[in-house]
Amino acid sequence: MEVTSIQDGIIIDHIPAGRALSVIHFLGLDPTRTRMALIMNTRSERYGSKDIIKIEQEATFQLDILGFVAPQASINIVKAGKIVSKRTPGRPLSLVNVIRCSNPRCVTTVEGGIDQGFHLDTTGGQPGVYRCDYCDEEAELS
Amino acid sequence: MGDLRGSSLVTLDDMRLEHIRSLIQRAAYIDGHRQQVAKTCAGRVLATLFYEPSTRTRLSFETAMLRLGGQVVGFAGAQLSSASKGETISDTLKVVSNYADLVAIRHPKEGAARVAAQAASVPVINAGDGGHMHPTQTLADLATIQARLGRLSDLTVGLCGDLTFGRTVHSLVTTLARFGGIRFVLISPDELRCPQYVLDRIDAAPTCSYLCTRDLTSVIGDLDVLYMTRVQQERFFNEDDYLRLRDTYILDEAKLSGARQHLAVLHPLPRVNEIAVEVDSDPRAAYFQQVKEGMLVRMALEAALLGDPLPGYEDEMEEN
């Protein structure tokens, strides 16, 4: 399989295999309007298998969310066909209206008009887990 | 203590240890100066919004305000509130903030007290939000331990029974771990062990440690505090399992015979049969004192959140 390189944009590499579609969802990318390549379940020397997303546009979306959905990913910024910077996503301290709490006993299931907030809890050690601001239930990646 | 004026209590995790210590100290002062503090909150109104009935907790909050000279309004049961018409918690709190100076809320949904505190323009106290938090129960537990043993650290604390679903256990463990110097002995059947996130809290406290065991008799002699909990029948799918586990931890005089003389036996109540009635007359039984300490510490909390000073308290602190 051959996917051409991009000229200006972002390559999100080392996404856990099978999670690229979730990444697209959480980044808020519209697949019908975004010029991008999606590579899933390809070989990875580091992890065995991985997904890759190549996006031919400037990063106007919140890349921090990758710290939640794909913390092991690497973000490569491409300009004029060359990678000019490379970094791993940080773990955001909070997530607001990104995911919903899955706890059926949580107040967010009955109370409309409030933010769906999660915070990073590192009590059990790094890298930590995200917990609901209201009920402390651990976040689930749907 | 002025820092607490106007603030809400949703979880003790948000409260500094110095404020917890101060509340317990104030509760002890109130106990010895009932007449002097009887008008501390005169003219104040407490609203108790109990979306699910909890008669003893509600009475404790209301008695506390009445003993401070304030008054109370409220409801017990969602069918008696506008929630039955579909009103949100936020809207109810925005309305009630115009009536009352302070709100105590109990709600079956976890996190409801945080929603209430965000919406209200007056201080809100979490009187229990589902199986999540019940911070004033923990304050009552701490006040009882302080009254009995004179300290909240350098203790061996046993917690026995349902350690999986018992919110009072989780809150007490995580708060005591912040005080430090606690050896926790976690006594439960395998099916009802303490959840990992609570154990992580103990591990994160450098001067605390824990031991998990199924056998109460073999460890009771090491304990300064024994916190008994009810094995909750509604958690079991199999009636036989419930009966077997429930009967494992009946604390009676025979088991207590191996305990230290200064042991304090606590229980958040109600009990079913995990503490035999014969233990009530044992000087180590502290669970009815716990009820009194709960009211006193709620008095201290209500006055503190309202910013109403306890008459004579500051003077006595200066003298000491």
Automatic annotation (TrEMBL), chain A:
Protein name: Aspartate carbamoyltransferase regulatory chain
Gene name of this polypeptide: pyrI
Domain spans labelled Aspartate carbamoyltransferase regulatory subunit C-terminal: 96-138
Segments forming domain Aspartate carbamoyltransferase regulatory subunit N-terminal: 1-88
Zinc recorded as keyword: yes
Assigned keywords, A-Z: Metal-binding, Pyrimidine biosynthesis, Zinc
InterPro entries reported in the protein's UniProt record: Asp_carbamoyltransf_reg_N (IPR020545), Asp_carbamoylTrfase_reg (IPR002801), Asp_carbamoyltrfase_reg_C (IPR020542), Asp_carbatrfase_reg_C_sf (IPR036792), Asp_carbatrfase_reg_N_sf (IPR036793)
Keyword rRNA processing: no
Pfam families: PyrI, PyrI_C
SUPFAM superfamilies membership: Aspartate carbamoyltransferase, Regulatory-chain, C-terminal domain (SSF57825), Aspartate carbamoyltransferase, Regulatory-chain, N-terminal domain (SSF54893)
TrEMBL record, chain B:
Reaction it catalyzes: carbamoyl phosphate + L-aspartate = N-carbamoyl-L-aspartate + phosphate + H(+)
Residue numbers binding carbamoyl phosphate: R56, T57, R106, H134, Q137, L269, P270
Purpose of the protein: Catalyzes the condensation of carbamoyl phosphate and aspartate to form carbamoyl aspartate and inorganic phosphate, the committed step in the de novo pyrimidine nucleotide biosynthesis pathway.
One Pfam family linked to the record: OTCace
UniProt cross-references to InterPro entries, sorted A to Z: Asp/Orn_carbamoyltranf_P-bd, Asp/Orn_carbamoylTrfase, Asp/Orn_carbamoylTrfase_sf, Asp_carbamoyltransf, Asp_carbamoyltransf_Asp/Orn-bd
Protein family: Belongs to the aspartate/ornithine carbamoyltransferase superfamily. ATCase family.
Domain Aspartate/ornithine carbamoyltransferase Asp/Orn-binding: 154-301
Residues holding L-aspartate: K85, R167, R230
Subunit organization: Heterododecamer (2C3:3R2) of six catalytic PyrB chains organized as two trimers (C3), and six regulatory PyrI chains organized as three dimers (R2).
Annotated PANTHER family: ASPARTATE CARBAMOYLTRANSFERASE, ORNITHINE CARBAMOYLTRANSFERASE, MITOCHONDRIAL
EC number: 2.1.3.2
Ranges where the Aspartate/ornithine carbamoyltransferase carbamoyl-P binding domain occurs: 9-146
Protein name (Swiss-Prot/TrEMBL): Aspartate carbamoyltransferase
Pathway: Pyrimidine metabolism; UMP biosynthesis via de novo pathway; (S)-dihydroorotate from bicarbonate: step 2/3
This protein's UniProt keywords: Pyrimidine biosynthesis, Transferase
